[in-house]
Amino acid sequence: MEQKNQCKVEVRQTDSHGTIIARDNYELTRNLPKCVGVERLCEGANFQIPFNADEINLIYQFGEQSKAETCASLSAVLPQIKDSDTKQIVSTTLKKLNVLSEKTCAELTATTKRRKLTERDHSIKARLAKAKEQAKQPTVAERKQHRTNSKGKGDMEL
């Protein structure tokens, strides 16, 4: 792991020979790490295949157990897409997945799904914790009521 700056971290995974096989980039957003890009080694070649946030989201949404199933899911949705930009993102993601090995593709899909579920769960937990904390705080009306009730407590009745 290497801290790139105040809000960015890069996590690298190497094989037994020290070759980087995976690189994930995270940004700190509202005190929660969010994956903004990943790279996976293209086996048989000595270069990394980069995936941006949009491509990662597609892998999360359409990722299956195997490379063939994931590519089939993306291919099935491609003809239904009307927006040219979205169509380009899906096509590019398919091309990138096709050059990865079966093992690397399955690992990428599995880690993407785990990461997205963790990000979602932490986001929900953070919002629930904030809501609980706010619920404990007295409302404006409750504070006024408390001040009104406490004013007369020091007076003694004769």
Q: How would you portray this structure in words?
A:
The chain has 158 residues and is of the alpha+beta class. The chain has helices spanning 53-62, 67-77, 84-99, 102-136, 140-151, and strands spanning 2-5, 8-14, 20-29, 32-42, 47-52. Strands 1-2-3-4-5 form a five-stranded antiparallel sheet. It is elongated.
Layout of helices and strands, plus pairs?
Layout: E1 2-5, E2 8-14, E3 20-29, E4 32-42, E5 47-52, H1 53-62, H2 67-77, H3 84-99, H4 102-136, H5 140-151
Antiparallel strand pairs: 1-2, 2-3, 3-4, 4-5
Helix pairs in contact: 1-3, 1-4, 2-3
Outline:
The protein is of the alpha+beta class. 53% of the residues lie in helices and 24% in strands.
List keywords for this structure.
5 strands; 5-stranded antiparallel sheet; 158 residues
| Order of strands, widest sheet | 1-2-3-4-5
Number of strands: 5
Measured by DSSP, the beta-strand proportion falls in: 15-25%
Query: What is the element string, with H for helices and E for strands?
Result: EEEEEHHHHH
Shape: elongated
Helix content: 40-55%
The main sheet comes to: 5 strands, antiparallel
Question: Which regions are unreliable across 5 or more consecutive residues at pLDDT < 50?
Answer: none
Helices and strands: which structural class?
alpha+beta
In angstroms, what separates the terminal alpha carbons? Answer: 74 Å
Q: Give the overall pLDDT as a whole number.
A: 86
Radius of gyration: 25 Å
Number of helices: 5
